[in-house]
Amino acid sequence: MPKNPHLxxxxxxxxxxxxxxxxxxxxxxxxxxxxxxxxxxKNPVLAASGTFGYGLELAAFCPPQDLxxxxxxxxxxxxxxxxxxxxxxxxGFGLINAIGLENVGLEAFLEKYLxxxxxxxxxxxxxxxxxxxxxxxxxxxxxxxxQVDFIELNVSCPNLQHPGGLSFGSDALSLAQITKNSxxxxxxxxxxxxxxxxxxxxxxxxxxxxxxxxxxxxxINSLPALSINLESRQANLANGPGGLSGPxxxxxxxxxxxxxxxxxxxxxxxxxxxxxxxxxLEFIVAGAEAxxxxxxxxxxPTLPVQMVSDLAKYLAQNNLKNLGEIRGTLKF
Length: 332
Ligand SMILES: Cc1cc2nc3c(=O)[nH]c(=O)nc-3n(C[C@H](O)[C@H](O)[C@H](O)COP(=O)(O)O)c2cc1C
Hints:
Blueprint: E1 34-36, E2 39-41, E3 45-47, E4 69-75, E5 88-91, E6 94-97, H1 106-119, E7 124-128, H2 133-144, E8 150-154, H3 166-170, H4 172-185, E9 191-194, H5 202-211, E10 216-219, E11 223-225, E12 228-229, E13 234-235, E14 242-245, H6 250-263, E15 268-271, H7 277-285, E16 290-293, H8 295-299, H9 303-317
Parallel strand pairs: 3-4, 3-16, 4-7, 7-8, 8-9, 9-10, 10-15, 15-16
Antiparallel strand pairs: 1-2, 5-6, 6-14, 11-14, 12-13
Helix pairs in contact: 2-4, 4-5, 5-6, 7-9
Flavin mononucleotide binds near residues 51, 246, 272 and 294.
């Protein structure tokens, strides 16, 4: 990926250099904790699905237990091989991926990965994806008997050739049914619905998730995109189209998060192009309860832990006791 001016070595954005003097005059440790339905997380920084593996691969750089939660790679009932390579390409200051939701499948996750991850003390969200409504229910039912702390329904993947994916999340009736039936199957485990980014009315969809029992919504997923090799006149990804992520999608993500946060009673988790704690604070001012880091983890796997510490310092330096003092303060 070309070097992102958003992520300079010392972390300073040109116009916000003063707020980067993070090490002076710190007061008592501020409270970074957030609530996701019944869950209390120690901080608002979550690893996004698809960029943190099954939670332990990057542990040497980013201990999963130091984050608010980790969300594991999207799981299907059976293992999926995903799309052929190349599956990731740089695109301006972002990237386009068409991994195609390659994953080990539900049972391998439960047998091999979940136990060691939970042993670290991490809060774990399992991201799931199905080809039919009944897949979501079966996945949720099985996960409800496991040690996962919550389940995130991915109804919004832009690079999937399988039926479902994007269409479930954009279709009001399907979204209502998937949410309702998954909430029922999950017993008491909280359900987070990951909404599609590009729809005419994001607030209506978010309300459907809320009205059907979701504990929170997360947004946004990557955006439908295409990268072309002019010489060969072929797409740069074997799949053709893919999903755009990283800094270019942040303005859209902020807009969708702000609209949903104003309209919903349940928490909104914001993501899309968050590359440092100031980006995260913009989402919180827009009303997000918590944030997820995706592409940022691929650029620098230590980023989320750095962000936790930078957020604490920001609050202390600005005499803020907790994030609630700035959450949703956007004048809009
Ligand atoms: C390589 C890669 C794999 C991803 N896999 C998943 C996935 O399995 N499930 C899912 O819900 N989102 C997946 N996503 C989307 C991210 O979780 C996130 O919604 C999106 O990238 C926007 O956030 P970002 O700009 O911080 O990356 C993936 C993204 C990338 C870059």
